[in-house]
Amino acid sequence: MDALLIVDLQNDFCPGGALAVPEGDTIVPTVNAMAARFDHVIQTQDWHPAGHQSFASSHPDHAPMDVIEVDYGEQVLWPDHCVQGTEGAEFHPDLDTAPSELILRKGFRPGIDSYSAFYENDGTTPTGLTGYLRERGIDTLYLCGLATDFCVKWSAVDGREEGFDVYVIEDATRGIDQDGSLAQAWDEMNEAGVQVISSEAALDLA
Ligand code: VGL
Ligand code: ZN
């Protein structure tokens, strides 16, 4: 059984937001068209407390986009974004959230970032998504949303590791592209057995 997973299509990741992904908003019509066609739709929502460890503002000696070493490895320091309860954390106003059966929040632990929909960035703290999908008999995921090279990639690769068939809908995702991270993300996804599909082809399958 298939599900569409819409990753972090929130105001702060769209132009005008705190951590804007170039053209992030342009995917909304395509995502809505997909959500209307899939039998099961799930969304993630980046949902950080103020003062989150991933925010550069929590590290006085650092600037946004610096990379530091934390307990669980490298951490990119981001501008404050998707703070719980703020406008920036809301979904893009044109995104149709009605079809979504589950909205999974992540990144709410102050000391740990969470790019993947399956595991926090320590690689061991589960979000519960694997169990939810398995119990519901979902074995194939179609990913779209933001950002290709962070939350979409980490979710896609973890999805493969958890044993799901994973497709990324190429024209329904956009990347941050920090120091070549976008090309590297496509390589990593390819190596993990993630398949790339167009929205047109995905709509035919749905
Ligand atoms: C994301 C950076 C920080 C994403 C979330 O949704 O890709 N990127 N938090
Ligand atoms: Zn975040």
Outline:
With 206 residues, the chain is α/β, with parallel strands linked by helices. It has helices at 28-37, 129-135, 148-161, 181-191, 199-205; strands at residues 2-7, 41-46, 67-70, 73-76, 100-106, 140-146, 165-174, 195-197.
Describe this structure in words.
This protein is of the alpha/beta class. Helix content is 24%, strand content 23%. The chain contains 5 helices and 8 strands; from the N terminus they run βαββββαβαβαβα. The chain has a 6-stranded parallel β-sheet, sandwiched between helices. It has a two-stranded antiparallel sheet with strand order 3-4. α1 links the parallel β1 and β2. α3 packs parallel to α4. The chain is globular. The model has no long low-confidence stretch (mean pLDDT 97). The structure holds pyrazine-2-carboxylic acid and zinc ion. Pyrazine-2-carboxylic acid (VGL) binds next to α3. Belongs to the isochorismatase family.
